[in-house]
Amino acid sequence: MIRRLYRIYRPHLGWLLLGTPLALVTLLANVGLLAISGWFITAMAGAGLAGTSMNYFGPAAIIRGLAMIRTAGRYGERVVTHEATFRLIADLRVWFYRRIEPLAPAGLAAWRSGELLNRLQRDIDRLDAVYLRIALPLLVAAIGILLFTLFMALYDPFMALLNLGFLLFVGVALPLWINRLSRDPGRHQVQLESELRTCAVDTIQGMADLTAYGADGAHARRFRETADQWLAAQDRLQSTQSLGDAAQGLLAQLAVWGVLLLGIGLLQAGLLDGPQLAMLALFTLASFEAIAPLPAALGVVAETAEAARRLFTVADTPPVIEEPARPRTPPKHGGIRFEQVCLQYDPNGQPALQDLDFSLPEGSLTLLRGASGSGKSSIASLLLRFRDPDAGRILFAGNDLKTFASEQWRERVALVAQDTQLIAGTIRDNLLLARPDAQEDELLAACAQAHIDDFIRTLPEGLDTWVGETGARFSGGQARRIAIARALLKNAPLLILDEPTEGLDRRTEQLVIDSLMPLIEGRTVLLISHRALGLTHIQQTLTLQHGRIVSQTQPFQH
Question: Among the four residues 218, 291, 433, 548, which has the most C-beta atoms within 10 Å?
Fold first, then answer.
């Protein structure tokens, strides 16, 4: 896991390494500032009691210099480390999206949309701890402990060993203990937070259905129970980390007392003077700043590892389809042929499609009928190459679809479905998904053909009107006509209409049918519907039952 993260982080290694000396300089300036201030105040007090003079310009200048270095170093360290972290998170999101994009939609069927959103957002956010809260504090602490020990050894080796022992115990043993206590709560918190976010997304997206079926109360109770469990896990985790902070503070004070006890003996023996003892005592206290982040750092290792595991679980999912090593370029035109095609989702279940053998001639309109669950959507999924047949083959212009790169093939296919997919953007953004280089006049022409232009003109912002999440600001008929305009822009030779008027009232249905007419002309069309939708030039009708073609008529009889 660490190696994989390192490969992802490697392009930003310069930013990551620059953060280390800045953090180290800040630490040394802060420790030096407290230690020299202790020496200076004690020396000035001693000089006043003895009635002697003392040059205070040098120490005062050093103190001011260290204060400025600490401020500048802290600012620089924050800028550099956070810039590195933001770059890493951005790259992680792009990397994760590129890994899951080939899986959509069939390869991601095991995860709900809320779960994927949580992994793309929250789990990746957690990985900022790898550098900012784990790697950087550990590296700076290791260098700092070494330098502090060498400095104290100049005055007394036993003091140095005593402080080193406390630093190692607080910086290594205590964090490992905290990590062990927080491992299970940390993992549990990540899982519960994912469930909570997924439940929230499901609630928002499915509120209409939940209310219609009277399940909103049960869903709300489940949400509250999950939230209570998450808060309890968070409390356990915070209690463990608070225990570590308290133990760290206690041990730091004990280290100071130990240094003072040893220093008093040296003072009496004349090996140290008063200002030096004060300096070493405050130096010991300040040195614990180096290991202060370590209990918290190892405390988040468990949840960070769980977040990384969850990401890699999805990213390592093998694609459902296998891309050809040497893909062919799909022809611009041609008919479709299914030859003994079989498809099975569950190895232990019933086949979704069995021995399908039919053709969609070029330029023809085919009606595919069948009850829910008969396999109609599976045929659409195969035509879009979201899946490949388990047996048999599908030909386009005599070429097996498996010989085409999936992305190139999908450029030849347009889909208008019952569940219209509109992104959370403007109307223009949604249309440009089909053709990113389309000009304004082409967008308006497509909207006119789809009979949605009159509605767009009534909007103050026109094509730049925000459609909302999944097109929530528009009615079902308006959203489908926008999808039809998008399909017109794509100008693909093969068109799949999957229940394009389902759930619409008669008036809206007729508007959608009128919008479909220019889209059907000159294309090979597969209409998946329970009825002919008033279309008079259907060349053939296929009836599907339990994954088999049980009836084929040519032409369709009204």
Answer: 291
